[in-house]
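ok, trying the design again with the full structure, not the truncated one.
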């Protein structure tokens, strides 16, 4: 069963921070490409100073990004920049955005403490493979601060949870903010402290299983590691000790506001073959056709059918690459389900990146030659400037594919999904020290 609990969150004090939009941020793994400096410039109290602090030339065991994160948190709490909720609460997050086609989507999230469980227990399931590096970094931050700052974004089978929460926040103003990077997204946030509402939501969630991690696999696996460490150090701690739980944002799988964006692959420092040579070699598995421009490429991608996944390649010219025969993957990868084999990312990685380009899984894992991009324009520019070999353009993974593959116990290749918008950091934090009780 999925056990969630309210918690006494730590939040920024609006009497100390005039504009709360200046202190919230993208998740730590999105703070890149100069974004860290922009967050730092916004406020001396930005959450980025904790979740993605700047490294220093003189860093050592006693003074580093993790010890500074701990010191920021403790001093901000002591000085009233941060404040602790008086009573346990569940939190509601609505994120509203206008998409490129002009439609408006609002995704409704429930923020709670979720009791940790291993994947083989069937309560929480991963949906894609992860890289190893970020797990060490997040574990060090957790050890130093004993606080969850970033959220794990999870999907759950719908019931009446949204209806319960909608009724609880009706007529309540809440907070309305806009984060720097995804500035077009309106972030609305409420704390729900009514014990009757909380109990009803907890009971409604309890029988659910197969909660899917949409974003935050590294953070979840790190939380399990930290929990096990703490259990070994404190064997007499009760089951409701803070370290047995993780800060999560839960969204219904049926939420009409769910949006998945594609993650494109930019190929850099790759010297085995040119883009045109790769296209020629790809004809063993794919139909390859050239198109005139970016608009024609995007139109062709939009016309793809599930039985014949396709992707695009840009190396100064535009090409559309479509799987010829799904049976090719069945012969090569009989251990996987047919649904997994027909994922666009499976076709891309298993056939094109590995067999055509000759880039093995270890190289992909190390990200030696691959950069993952949400915005394809960055990739087009890198190719045009001679800073990259070519760009591989993707269609988004569909929600039903996530559900089917996860339900079958299949992990998608890394970076299969990009749920939009991101669950931002800095709205609420959850202490998880040995003395915390949930």
């Amino acid at each position: 069963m999925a056990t969630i609990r309210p918690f006494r969150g730590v939040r920024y004090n609006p009497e100390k921070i005039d504009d709360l939009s200046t202190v919230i941020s993208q998740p730590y793994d999105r703070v890149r490409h100069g974004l860290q400096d922009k967050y730092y410039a916004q406020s001396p109290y930005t959450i980025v100073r904790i979740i993605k602090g700047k490294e220093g030339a003189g860093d050592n065991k006693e003074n580093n990004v993790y010890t500074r994160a701990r010191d920021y948190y403790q001093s901000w709490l002591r000085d009233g920049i941060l404040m602790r909720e008086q009573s346990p609460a569940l939190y509601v997050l609505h994120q509203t955005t206008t998409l490129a086609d002009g439609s408006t989507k609002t995704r409704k999230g429930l923020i709670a403490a979720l009791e940790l469980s291993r994947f083989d227990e069937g309560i929480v399931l991963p949906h894609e493979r992860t890289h190893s590096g970020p797990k060490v970094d997040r574990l060090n931050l957790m050890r130093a601060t004993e606080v969850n700052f970033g959220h794990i974004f999870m999907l759950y089978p719908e019931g009446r949870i949204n209806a319960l929460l909608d009724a609880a926040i009706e007529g309540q103003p809440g907070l309305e903010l806009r984060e720097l990077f995804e500035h077009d997204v309106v972030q609305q946030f409420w704390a729900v402290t009514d014990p009757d509402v909380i109990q009803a939501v907890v009971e409604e969630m309890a029988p659910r299983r197969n909660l899917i991690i949409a974003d935050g696999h590294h953070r979840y696996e790190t939380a399990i590691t930290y929990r096990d460490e703490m259990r070994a150090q404190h064997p007499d701690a009760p089951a409701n000790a803070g370290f047995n739980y993780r800060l999560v944002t839960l969204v219904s799988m049926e939420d009409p506001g769910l949006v998945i964006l594609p993650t494109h692959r930019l190929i850099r420092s790759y010297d085995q073959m040119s883009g045109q040579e790769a296209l020629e070699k790809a004809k063993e598995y794919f139909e390859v056709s050239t198109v005139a421009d970016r608009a024609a490429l995007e139109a062709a991608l939009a016309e793809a059918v599930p039985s014949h996944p396709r992707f695009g390649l840009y190396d100064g010219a535009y090409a559309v690459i479509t799987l010829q025969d799904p049976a090719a993957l069945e012969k090569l990868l009989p251990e996987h389900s047919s649904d997994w084999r027909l994922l666009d990312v499976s076709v891309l990685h298993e056939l094109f990146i590995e067999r055509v380009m000759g880039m093995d899984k270890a190289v992909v894992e190390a990200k030696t030659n691959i950069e993952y991009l949400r915005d394809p324009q960055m990739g087009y520019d890198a190719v045009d400037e001679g800073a990259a070999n070519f760009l591989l353009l993707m269609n988004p993974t569909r929600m039903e594919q996530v559900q089917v593959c996860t339900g079958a116990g299949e992990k998608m290749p890394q970076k299969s999904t990009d749920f939009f918008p991101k669950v931002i950091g800095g709205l609420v934090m959850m202490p998880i020290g040995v003395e915390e009780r949930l």
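Keeping the full-length input from now on. Residues 78 and 112 are 24 Å apart (CA to CA).
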